[in-house]
Amino acid sequence: MNTNGNTYTVIYSTVLVVLVAAILSFVSMSLQDKQNKNVKMETISKVLTAAAESDPSVTVDETSNVMQMYADMVTSAFFVDGSGKEVESMELGKDDLNRIEVPTTADLKKQNDLLKKIDGGEKDLLGQLRLPVFIFDVNGEEIRVIPCYGAGLWGPIWGYLAVADDGKTIKGAIFDHKGETPGLGAKIAEPAFYDEFIGKAFSDADTKFAVVKGGNPDDLNTVDAISGATITSQALGRGINLWVKYYEPYLKTVAAAKTEKDLQQAAAPAMEETAGEATINEEE
């Protein structure tokens, strides 16, 4: 074959392209399990960190075995639909850490797409929602972690909020992003920003939560935006607000259960006293 001819060039180029594609495909497939494990560990680390922020004595860092910590501290993990009803459980990994199930950011994006359609008027999609809920025992305190997701300035932004058993108070938070500007929007992933969420709360009004420029520190339902990164900050606020809006039916059931429990605990001493008086009267 004439190596200087067009036919040789076409055949050579085709073989080379097919060979490179085959090699890349093989490498990608061989690394898939490792990539999936890394994504899972990153998600678990974020969820666990949000929960741990509720208690200063609990630390999650690069030395932590996050999968074991998760399995030890998580008590329940499941999905709820738009009515707040639990529809599916996640594997907790109590007996096998490799079996831990957590939704990835790709899963959060799918839910976010649904939320936007529902918020745009397609209410028939409410039953298709699968919103993740993680419940942890943090030194005796029950903490729920819920995610949020949205579009930042240059790409997706997401995070996790730890919520007290009143269904409103934020006990911890952590956020991340794909491509926000270093030193500006990227600061949403820094403790100096997300620590400001601790002690804040979701509102009963239409706007559940917001990140606003010049936010008042005394306003429980807002956090001050990052200086020079107003667009990313407000986008995060919109994402939180949208997700909390559709978690509200579930969070209301949590709050109702908390109220009922408090009432029972308050009534317990009186009931014990009445029972004691009844016993004395019977003895007399």
**Spatial separation of the terminal alpha carbons:** 118 Å
Number of separate domains: 1
Strand content: 15-25%
Overall radius of gyration: 25 Å
Number of helices: 5
- Helix share bin: 40-55%
H/E topology pattern: HHEEHEEEEHEEH
Largest sheet: 6 strands, antiparallel
Mean of all residue-level pLDDT scores: 88
Strand order of the largest sheet: 2-1-3-4-5-6
Low-confidence stretches: none
Helix/strand/pairing class, anyone?
Answer: alpha+beta
Shape: globular
Total strands = 8
What features would you highlight for this structure?
284 residues, alpha+beta, six-stranded antiparallel β-sheet
Write up this protein.
It is a single chain. The chain has about 280 residues and is α+β, with helices and mostly antiparallel strands. The chain contains five helices and eight strands; from the N terminus they run H-H-E-E-H-E-E-E-E-H-E-E-H. It has helices at about 5-50, 65-75, 105-120, 190-195, 230-284; strands spanning about 75-80, 85-90, 130-140, 140-150, 155-165, 170-175, 210, 220-225. The protein has a six-stranded antiparallel β-sheet. Strands 7-8 form a two-stranded parallel sheet. About 30% of the residues are buried.
Tell me briefly what this model is.
By secondary structure, the protein is of the alpha+beta class. The chain has helices spanning 6-52, 66-73, 105-119, 191-194, 230-283; strands at residues 74-80, 86-89, 131-138, 141-151, 156-163, 170-177, 210-212, 222-224.
